[in-house]
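Hi F.,

I've been meaning to write this up properly since the lab meeting, where we talked about keeping a consistent format for the predictions we share between groups. The idea is simple: the sequence comes first, exactly as it goes in, then the structure tokens exactly as they come out, then a line or two of notes. No screenshots and no reformatting. I'm using this chain as the first example so we have something concrete to point to.
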Amino acid sequence: MRHPHTMSPDTDPSDERGPRTGRHGPGPRGLGRGSRGGPAGPGGGPEGPRRGRGFGRPGGWQQGDLPGADDADKWFAGRLPDAWFDAVDVTVDREEITVIGTLANVDAGTDASEAEGRISRFRAETREQRIAIAQEAQARYQRTVSWGARVGDTTALFTHLAVPVMTRLRQPERAVLDTLVDAGVARSRSDALAWSVRLVAEHADAWLAELREAMSEVDKLRAKGPEL
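Output, unedited:
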């Protein structure tokens, strides 16, 4: 399995995702939950009308409130400028839409340092347009939009969410995490859990893809069923 060179994600407060949802706390420049400087994101202000609940309000959208995002890849394919990318990968979950594009007109065999430079230039030159597109997508799908770019084996995530996941582990499971921490593989139990998830995803990619496809078929059958 090929392991691409990945640049560290940028945590610059000049967040390019557009305003954050209330679900994830305050957004850039104090425009998040509880801010008196104005409503955050498409939930209010210049980005759109304030809704009675959900996006831009304390607590954010619950899972049942979220609109479907099955067409997100097609929407971005139509919305993104043709000159930006040769190919685009759009990944969606309940909190976030991640858009990673392969830069157009760049040789896939480009040296890693040059690739990083081209990605950085693309990021700077397209910042304002990407923020505008992210705001449109967030209003449509009620999820945060994150960006990344790829040249050959070099991939950079500009901004993306780190969402806390609550879980309960029994002692044998905690012992696995503590072993990873004690061995220096991870700095904390949280890091160890994230490392474990990445390892499973890396080695079970084909199985996970089959599982997602099977779940998609179940969703289609459920949609065809009679309404109660």
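Notes:
The chain has two domains: 5-21+68-157, 171-224.
Residues 171-224 form one domain.

If this format works for you, I'll send the rest the same way.

G.
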